[in-house]
Amino acid sequence: MNEAKYIWMNGEFKPWHEATTHVLSHTLHYGNGVIEGTKAYKTAKGYAIFRLNDHSKRLLESAKMTHLNIPYSAQELNDAQVELLRRNEFTGDNVYIRPFAFLGYGVMGVYHKDAPVTTAIAAWEWGAYLGEEGMKKGIKLKIVSMNRPSNTSSMGKAKATANYLNSQMAKFEAIDCGYEEALLLDDQGYVAEASGAAFFMIKDGVLISPPNDNSLESITQKTVIEMAKKMGIKVKRRRISREEVYVADEAFLTGTAAEITPVRIIDARVIGNGARGEMTEKLQSAYFDIVFGRNPDFEHYLTYI
After folding, report:
1. CATH 3.20.10.10 describes domain 132-291
2. How many other β-carbons are positioned within 10 Å of the β-carbon of residue 249?
3. What is the tens place of the pLDDT at every residue in 156-193?
């Protein structure tokens, strides 16, 4: 990966290779940690972090759900991310930021109340997710054999490290079968989300995305819905069955890393014209205008460095 100069850890800026933890840290053994994925883009005014406060707030909410006591406010986490970007002196177009918290060394056993909490933020330069050609062509998506765990069996609303074992296994299965990304159904057989992104489909001019009943509340998903409505596109949030996905006119995934990724094939069914659709292209272009600071209506979501 692209190493940087510093990582923020428990209030200090440490050299990249000195930001370490003990092998008996509680989270390594029992999986209770929380993460965020935030991104900064190089705009005409310099780097700007997109929806910074929303990501910091979600990290704290995830920690509360999983009984992790992060001793920093959202504003303190915001300030740390801004300063981290300054100190690392990045030059690329995109920077990925990973705020996270985990249980450190001192307690073993499932009960974690007395385990110390470590809070850290790393950042590194991040290239284009698919490249220009890939963002036009789109990806192959597979509905995998495993489901998103039900709401009664896990903390699905938390962006918790333990939840990503499900995502890892799903994506491994998809890639092993010759696809590029996984789509998971919920325990009722309706679309939940991809391994690390939200799902959208377009049918008869309507933009449709499943509710967050059994998926992470995606910040990028909210952004896409907001900008689609401003563009006059009709939006529906409702359950989506497997069969509906196969006959969609267009489909795409959204997330901080995925941005807006077109889908051209789902389970060997060609979606629409087999490449990025017309509405997907419009939304994709509008999204990049927002994050690169070219749309003043959404500039309040940008924190300039």
Report:
1. yes
2. 17
3. 889 999 999 999 999 999 999 999 999 999 999 999 99
| Residue ranges of the chain assigned to CATH 3.30.470.10 | 6-127
- Provide the 10 A C-beta neighbour count for residue 75: 10
Determine the Cα–Cα distance for residues 92 and 39; give it in Å rounded to an integer.
12
With beta carbons less than 8 A apart as the criterion, state whether 141 and 194 touch. yes
Q: What is the DSSP string of 53-112?
A: HHHHHHHHHHHHHTT----S-HHHHHHHHHHHHHHHT--SSEEEEEEEEEE-TT--SS--
Q: Is pLDDT of 105 > 80?
A: yes
CA gap 99, 54 in Å, rounded:
12
Q: Which fold has domain 6-127?
A: D-amino Acid Aminotransferase; Chain A, domain 1 (3.30.470)
45 catalytically annotated: no
- For residue 5, what are the contacts with CB-CB under 8 A and spacing of at least 6? 15, 16, 87, 88, 89
Q: Which of 5, 159, 203, 222 is catalytic?
A: 159
Token pair listed for 164: 């990503």
Task: Report the alpha-carbon distance of residue 71 to residue 10 in Å, rounded.
Answer: 9
pTM over cut 0.90? yes
Tokens 């209030």: give the residue. 11
pLDDT tens digit sequence for 60-99: 999 999 999 999 999 999 999 999 999 999 999 999 999 9
pLDDT at 48: 98
- CA 4 to chain CA centroid, nearest Å: 21
> Is 305 strand, coil or helix?
coil
Predicted pLDDT at 278: 97
Q: Which ranges in the chain are annotated with CATH 3.20.10.10?
A: 132-291
DSSP 115: S
